[in-house]
Amino acid sequence: MAKVVNRMHPDFATQSYVVEAFKGVALVTRQFARNLFAKKDVVTVHYPEDRRAYTPRFRGKHRLMLRDDKSVRCVACMLCATACPANCITIVAKEIDDSTIEKAPVSFDIDLLKCIYCGFCEEACPCDAIRLDSGVHTLPSYTRRDQKAGVVNLLALGSASIASQGGENRAHSHEGTAHGRSSH
Amino acid sequence: MHLVDNVLLNLVLATLIKFVGFVLVFVMGVATVLTWAERKYSAVLQNRVGPNRANIGNVRAGGLLHMLADPIKMLTKEDFIPNTPNPILFRIAPLLAFVPALLVFAVIPYGPGDNFQVSNTSLGILFIFAIGSLNVYGSVIGAWASNNKWSLIGGLRISAQMISYEVAIGLSLCGIFMIYGSVDLQDIARQQGSLILGFIPAWGIVLQPVAFILYMACAIAENKRAPFDVGEAEAELTAGWWTEYSAMGFAVFALSEFIEIILIGCVGTTLFLGGWTIPFLHGDAWWIVVLEVGGFLLKTLFLIWLQMTIRWTLPRFRYDQIMRLGWRIMLPIALLNLVVTGIVLTFIERA
């Protein structure tokens, strides 16, 4: 279907560009004065000093949640490691005496250089043990070697992670203390 | 013999002092400030923040320290030379742009008398045209020696553009020469101190308003700045003719562009804004001289501001539009202006 194009036919004064150029200069100068003296239209956030809050859905560095007794909630079921499309989760499990939990992680490592922060592990987790809601970026570094710390033992981060909910295994939490790896 | 030596020595010394005072302190000083001012000014009028991170301790001074940080950065960065058959041309190209830009300030009268002009030649404006147009060689040779297609296209564009506008800028100023009957800048400036009908200052912008607009447009085109910066045209040509330049080579090119802004301001002031003269103020008292020199510098700064604002206001013309503007609009208007000026002058002389 043909489309009608409304072509502009500016008059001679406009086309000569001289008047329009000076109008533009006036406009720009007005905006300059406004930004300099009056209300600033600048919306820039001075990043390292001022930071905007992340949305609650922001997926940052992982954290492992704890039970009320400070033992780790993870039961080493490997669902997150299976769901992980980047294969960055390495869990070493051990058996514990608690008959309803049965397993606990000896180590829980995530290679942060491999992780794509998709949040599948969070969704796969049946006991709300791993979350990406810390709101923290993985810190940058100048060399790849410095990022060896990218393989993070999240059990060591457990102390920073406070569980906000109880889980199904809450009743067994005392046995969990005896055997699970709580970290301080 | 001894006497001649002394006279010569005094001449050299006086010239040196004037050169240092005007060119090194004022021109280079303003050019250095411009490297910061242009970025900050454009930022503020575009609702941005602009340079503000360079700091010593906690002192940031609104980004003023970038003037200091930039040279340090430029001097310590890698000075890259592309794989070119002409590395020597590539090296000297920034100088070919830089030296003529500085040289032309020798004939600018920034105050009354020989004491305020580095070299008082009767050539005046012709010297500016002759030397000033040399700096196209810097850009074109640099573009050619870069061995890069973007640079080459950019170089072709600016050479065509600068040759075209050289014609129009020369013709636009001819009206001024006809009115004041001189090409000597000091003479032109002094004549602008007189009054027409007893109350209008006989400035060039009053007598030749069309020529002023033509001059500003052509001068900005000569300086290859927006809206005439098709040679750089970062949207099409990366960075155009200086794509391959880095570190101090780039800095010298950029600095010569800023120096040329000041030159356009100085020449425009001298020819159109009354030079160093101040209306209704004449005399040889020292404070009048100080006021006159200060007035010249202020008028120059005004024209620099005007160029910067135009540069950040208007969008870039297309290459064919620039050519059409130069040859089919600027040139005929300049010629027409010349003819009308001639007719009016003849009538005034007859009357």
Topology:
The complex is a heterodimer of chains A (184) and B (351).
Chain A: H1 12-16, H2 18-37, E1 63-64, H3 79-83, E2 89-95, E3 103-111, H4 120-124, E4 130-131, E5 151-153, H5 173-179
Antiparallel strand pairs in A: 1-4, 2-3, 3-5
Chain B: H1 2-45, H2 66-76, H3 87-103, H4 125-132, H5 135-145, H6 149-180, H7 185-191, E1 195-196, E2 200-201, H8 204-207, H9 209-222, H10 234-237, H11 247-272, H12 286-311, H13 319-350
Antiparallel strand pairs in B: 1-2
Give a quick rundown of the structure:
The complex is a heterodimer of chains A (about 180) and B (about 350). With about 180 residues, chain A is an alpha+beta fold.
Offer a few descriptive terms.
A: 184 residues; alpha+beta; Alpha-Beta Plaits; 23% helix; B: mainly alpha; two-stranded antiparallel sheet; 13 helices
Number of helices of chain A: 5
Structural class of chain A: alpha+beta
| Integer count of domains of chain A | 2
Q: What fraction of residues of chain B sit in β-strands?
A: under 5%
- Total helices of chain B: the number is 13
Model description:
The complex is a heterodimer of chains A (184) and B (351). With 184 residues, chain A is α+β, with helices and mostly antiparallel strands. Chain A folds into 2 domains: 11-43; 63-179, 2-Layer Sandwich (Alpha-Beta Plaits), CATH 3.30.70.3270. Chain A has helices at residues 12-16, 18-37, 79-83, 120-124, 173-179, and strands at 63-64, 89-95, 103-111, 130-131, 151-153. Chain A is elongated, with a radius of gyration of 28 Å. Mean pLDDT of chain A is 75; it is low at 159-184. With 351 residues, chain B is mainly α. Chain B has one domain (78-350). Chain B is built from 13 helices and 2 strands.
